Give the backbone structure.
Amino acid sequence: MWWEYFIIILALVLSVTFLVLKYKNKIKHPEEGCKNCPLASNCEDKKSF
Amino acid sequence: MNGFGRRLRRRGRGRDRYFDDSNKNIIRIALAGNPNSGKTSVFNALTKQRQHIGNYPGVTVEKKTGRIQYDGKVIEFVDLPGTYSLSAYSLEEIVSRDFVLREKPDVIIDILDSTNLERHLYLLLQFQELGVPIVGALNMSDEAEQKGIIIDKQQLEGILGIPLVKTVGSKGQGVQDLLKTAVKVADGEILSNKRHLNYGTRLENAHNDIIRVLSTDPDFVKKYSMHWISIKLLENDRDAVEKVKQEHQNPDGVLLVAANWRQRIESHFGEDSEVVVSEQRYAYIRGATKETVHTKTKEGYINITEKIDRIALNRYLGIPVFLVIMFLIYQMTFTLGNPVSGSIGAFFGWCSNSLESLLPSGPLLDFLTGGIINGVGGVLVFLPLVLFLFLGLSFLEDTGYLARAAFVMDKFFHIFGLHGRSFIPFMVSSGCAVPGIMSARVLANPRDRIVTIMVSPIMMCGAKIPVIAMLAAAFFPEHAGLVFWSIWLFSWVSALTLALIFRNTLFRGGQTPFVMELPPYRMPTVRGVLYHMWEKSWEYVKKAGTVILAASIIIWFLLSYPKLPEEDATITSNLEVVNEQMSSQFEGSHISGNNTAQQELIYSFGGRIGKAIQPVIKYAGFDWKLGVSLFAGIAAKEVIISTMGILYGIEGEQVDEEASDDEIMLKDRIEVDPNYSPLVALSLMVFVMIYIPCIATLVMVKKELGSWKWPLFQAAYTLFVALALSIGIYQVGSLFISGA
């Protein structure tokens, strides 16, 4: 069915776009990764990155 | 929130529209203090800004400012980096003192921890030497009272020659009094900083003689506090020496006099002149606090911390205790998490089956079951393990133990040629390497910084956890906790060993000292621990639903297309029928999966990549499917799991016939794959821990070190080391284990 391929291609394009934007954002806002840090609750300055 | 608060928030977005910079009536107040003094909370209370408040030794290297309007004046606050002293050892110290010297704030508010006044007064004395008006905030005065510490504020004010205000920054208590006093000092209504400490006859003679020579240059006198430069020259402070060299009319004369005095002091006291100066400061502080600080015997509060620290910080027991605690956490993670993981696997199996009964077979059904459910489900199956792991770590974090771990590891780091502060990037990297790389900014020495950045991504970050957990649970079910702990330990040992190699080859050089602040132990609240656990685990779920989902879609596509040409598929299918007939004649022989599906996989884009890598990685025991997964894992390490899930999903049933049809547990699938064995799993775990960091980390390394040569070097050397170790493990292991 053509619409099945259409959904797959759309999902593919959206995924690539999302990942590119996500990586750009991660570099711009590295402090988001601080949420996983074992020292996060003791860290005064994660916003200063 | 009142109207004033709202205005401040608005100003935060459209900076300086509300307060005009041209206003002559601006008072600049710098906030200084040791890390853990509660400086950030006082800054927040003064500026009404919402920021995170904590008590871990700071990693601030950037300046934070905030403005308010008070009594018709604009008050600008500058939050200086948290420092223990104003020596030129760290970037924070240099940033702080350069700000005071160059920007000349009207007042410095020095935030002092009332529960640990002796240590905190050291920085205050150094600010006094800079000759700037100071107001001292006796912060955490409530905690001091709880501990039975009574400070005679009036007497201490007299001794130090500065006004003091009692505050509780976290509750905003006393902050308005502090502001009022600071404004009065700035306006000259209250005199501050009238006294300097007396360093004793010999040091004072030296000090005065150096001031005499310094004063021969009137421009230099206008620029700096002679008192401060003179003391710094006695300490042989490299930054002060540089200032004299570059800006004084007679640098040789000044430096010669200073050198002569240093030599005389050293021969008289038998100590380095810097040590003598700091000992004099501490002696003065001890005297001042003895007079003004009294402690009632509330022994219980303090002694618990001291008693625990006797073991936790013990020279010999500290590191074994840290290792045992981490082992117990990992053991608990697997014991409690594994059974729940099985239920989640069954749930995704049920989802797959339901979709199959709802949708006709075709590319969309393959996409949904093989791509999305196998990819995302494969990662989410490990959520219980992640939850229990973060439960344990959050508990340790909230008790204050992790700061002790930092202290213990500090000594250990020096053995490997790393600065104690490198522990911070290492620990942050064990959550995520991207902020870990950034936190290496705390290292002033460029060599320390580069080495730390090069090795810290080897730590077991959140993304590697599900990969290692899956392999440990699949191949070492009885000892999964022990294996996971061993791999965690291995990541530390390999990162430190590589640092030692770098420090002795590419990046030779000296080290600088480091002081670690230790907050008291606290009993964590259930709410706090659960909140931290949830915060971290939710990140995992979010990542599975976003990055992993997107990556799974791309990988499924790469592993499904292009399709095998019709005639090739027919030949493979016919061969498969023959194979099935033959194997049915030989009872007990194992049918290793669906050949057509495997040929299709090999024919796909992803399969071609895997096949291209295979000639190299086969020596480490990896087949082409692992090659594809590891290649995809460069995007993000969890993608290794989702790729394997997709591969097995596409390839079809390879699960043991006794296994439930409803389960899509990847670990059950690879467990019965003849290409895997405990030895391959071990080799794979080592490879995953070390090989090329994820793309986001590499880009961050480039950003931090300013050149692509560093991330390229990092990718190359980690790949080489990972491959060498994995091949070594597999080849040596194969000699001992038959059939590996």
